[in-house]
Each structure stands twice: as structure tokens, then as C-alpha cells.
């Protein structure tokens, strides 16, 4: 039997490295791997399905996989995951001292279907009581003007969203044109030390640890999607791909926990890695459906509430049937 040739596009993650380099193989599959920036990967896969298997923003994935007769399906493989209380940046002259102060204010994000903002808007809406309609939302590029939405939206009634084409969130936050930005990476104005731009939650690590302990949610930013016709034609490839991704991740975590073989020349990295492994119950970066059920359910609820997903899907709806079938020897 000739191996199936598949193209795979992801960022250069250490937890995918062994699969990408061939140290780990997916049975029956010969991958051609493209390592590109994730914004380019998202845009090109969303617009043209340029490769077979792709890293994809969780929010953009939710928009596309919940369409009628979607042409993609997910694998329960996590590319990137981060807590996002660190992602609130405010202009201190706005007088914002708590998240409740964002009611009636101007808050920006790079896209509406921006995963970091989806999780935090959902937290505000469902847990804090600051409804989507209570904020005037803005959309603009993070540090440069011109960023556009990648997927179709159906905004809830009463939601105000203003798109700005000629200025960046960083510029507007520094000038006070917006009061807050929810953004995946620190904006330039913050990194350059603008005196008025600060984090809303400087104690974000403690908040994020408490949030996980209370909810079991470890937010997924990017995951793996594949073209559905490939699965229809070759039902076996989903689990074989999953197994290879999972083994590659296992080896990566093993390296992090062992200072003798770590790829990263940082003091105490393995100490922190072991602490995180203990905090997350032994697997600091879990793949799989049940292992991520609370997070997936939250993502699918929030994207539906925010007019990104086309329906309120459940985790089993977005992955191949039987992908997590247990194999006991």
C-alpha cells in the first residue's frame, strides 16, 4: 500500500517537532510540512484550503466547522493554548480599575473572531455580568492598520462593533481613543513603555490559576483542522494523525521535564515545567476530547453567543466519529 501524501501547515512548535522532522511517523502517511506564521496559515487555509491539514484559530475553526455541510473537521490536537487575563490592556487615564468599569466603554480587539477576545468577552458576558451589548466594541489591526475579519459573522442584536481601517489598536489605546484592548500579544505601546498603558490585571497568573481550579477550563487558542473530503476518502487517517501528534507532544513534554535534554537554555525551566505538570494533573498540555471537554464546551458556547459559530455545537459534532476510541492491549 502506497502511503498517502498530505500537506500540513503549522507554526514551528516544539511539541510538533518530532512529527515534523520524521522522528515520529503517522502510519500510512507521508507529510509535507509547511512552517509559516500563524496569521498567514489562518488566512490562506480559510480563503483557499491551500493544504490538507492546518493549524487554525479556535474561533475561526468554530465559524467554519459549524456551517451547513462543513468542508473541514477538527482533530482534538491543541497547537496553542493560553489563559487570557493578561490580555486586557487599558489606558490608565480612562479610570478603569476593574473589569466592571468596562461597561459603557470602548474596547478593541484585532478581529471579532479573535480567540483571545472570544474567551474574555464570554467570561465578561457569562460570569461578570458585563453583557456583549454593554460595551462599544472596536476592531482594528493590533499594531498596524488594515487587518480584516477572516470569517463571516452574525452579530447578536444590540452589539455595537466599529471597524477602524486607518489606525491600530496600539495607536488608539495610547491616545485614549479606546479605553481597553483585548489582544493576544502585548501591543507596541505597552512594550515601548507608554506611561498611560497598563495591564488591567497585573496579578494575572494568580487569577488564571484560580480560574482553572474553579472551572477546569484551559483555553485553546489554535487547533488542528483537516479537509473533510480526505477523511471521507480515508477514514483511518484521523486517528493515525492524532497518534503521531500525541506522541510528538509527549516527547516534547518529556524534554521539558528533564533538564539534561531540554532544548531551551533557561535556568529552572524544568522546575517550572514540573510544577505546571503537577498543577494540571500530570499532563500540562492535554490533547483529546474528554481531556478538554470543559474548554471545548465553553469555546463552542461563546462563539455561538457572539455570532461567530453558526450553531451551538457540542464537542463530538466537530471531530471525526470514533477519533478517541480506546485501544487497550
Q: What labels describe this entry?
A:
single chain; 329 residues; alpha/beta; D-Maltodextrin-Binding Protein, domain 2; 2 domains; six-stranded mixed beta sheet
3D structure, described in words:
The chain has 2 domains: 177 residues, Periplasmic binding protein-like II (D-Maltodextrin-Binding Protein, domain 2), CATH 3.40.190.10; 131 residues, 3-Layer(aba) Sandwich (D-Maltodextrin-Binding Protein, domain 2), CATH 3.40.190. It is 35% helix and 18% strand. The chain is built from 11 helices and 11 strands. The protein starts with a strand and ends in a 24-residue tail after the last helix.
Instruction: Return the CATH architecture of the largest domain.
Output: 3-Layer(aba) Sandwich
Secondary-structure-based class equals alpha/beta
CATH class of the largest domain: Alpha Beta
Number of domains: 2
What general form does the structure show? Answer: globular
Whole-number radius of gyration? 20 Å
Biggest β-sheet: strands ordered side by side in the sheet: 8-7-6-9-5-10
**Considering the protein shown, what is the CATH homologous superfamily of the largest domain?**
Periplasmic binding protein-like II
In short:
This protein is of the alpha/beta class. The chain has eleven helices and eleven strands. The model has no long low-confidence stretch (mean pLDDT 96).
Amino acid at each position: 500500500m502506497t502511503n498517502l501524501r498530505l500537506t500540513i501547515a503549522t507554526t514551528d512548535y516544539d511539541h510538533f517537532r518530532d512529527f515534523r522532522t520524521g522522528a515520529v511517523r503517522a502510519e500510512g502517511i507521508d507529510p509535507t510540512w509547511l512552517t509559516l506564521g500563524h496569521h498567514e496559515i489562518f488566512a490562506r487555509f480559510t480563503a483557499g484550503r491551500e493544504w490538507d491539514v492546518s493549524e487554525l484559530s479556535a474561533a475561526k475553526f468554530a465559524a467554519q466547522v459549524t456551517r451547513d455541510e462543513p468542508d473541514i473537521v477538527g482533530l482534538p490536537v491543541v497547537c496553542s493554548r493560553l489563559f487570557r487575563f493578561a490580555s486586557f490592556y487599558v489606558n490608565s487615564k480612562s479610570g478603569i480599575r476593574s473589569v466592571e468599569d468596562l461597561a459603557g466603554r470602548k474596547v478593541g480587539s484585532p478581529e471579532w473572531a479573535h480567540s483571545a477576545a472570544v474567551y474574555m468577552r464570554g467570561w465578561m458576558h457569562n460570569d461578570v455580568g458585563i453583557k456583549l451589548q454593554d460595551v462599544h466594541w472596536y476592531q482594528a489591526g493590533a499594531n498596524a492598520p488594515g487587518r480584516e475579519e477572516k470569517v463571516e459573522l452574525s452579530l447578536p442584536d444590540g452589539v455595537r462593533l466599529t471597524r477602524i481601517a486607518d489606525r491600530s489598536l496600539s495607536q488608539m489605546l495610547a491616545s485614549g481613543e479606546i479605553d481597553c484592548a483585548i489582544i493576544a500579544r502585548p501591543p507596541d505601546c505597552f512594550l515601548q513603555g507608554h506611561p498611560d498603558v497598563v495591564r488591567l490585571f497585573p496579578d494575572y497568573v494568580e487569577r488564571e490559576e484560580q480560574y482553572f481550579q474553579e472551572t477546569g477550563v484551559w483555553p485553546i487558542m489554535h487547533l488542528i483542522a483537516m479537509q473533510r473530503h480526505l477523511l471521507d476518502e480515508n477514514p483511518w487517517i484521523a486517528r493515525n494523525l492524532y497518534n503521531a501528534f500525541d506522541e510528538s507532544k509527549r516527547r516534547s513534554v518529556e524534554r521539558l521535564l528533564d533538564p539534561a535534554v531540554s532544548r531551551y537554555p533557561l535556568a529552572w525551566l524544568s522546575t517550572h515545567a514540573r510544577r505546571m505538570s503537577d498543577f494540571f494533573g500530570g499532563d500540562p498540555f492535554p490533547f483529546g476530547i474528554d481531556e478538554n471537554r470543559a474548554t471545548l464546551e465553553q469555546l463552542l458556547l461563546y462563539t455561538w453567543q457572539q455570532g461567530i459559530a453558526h450553531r451551538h455545537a457540542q464537542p463530538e459534532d466537530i471531530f471525526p466519529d470514533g477519533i478517541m476510541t480506546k485501544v487497550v492491549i
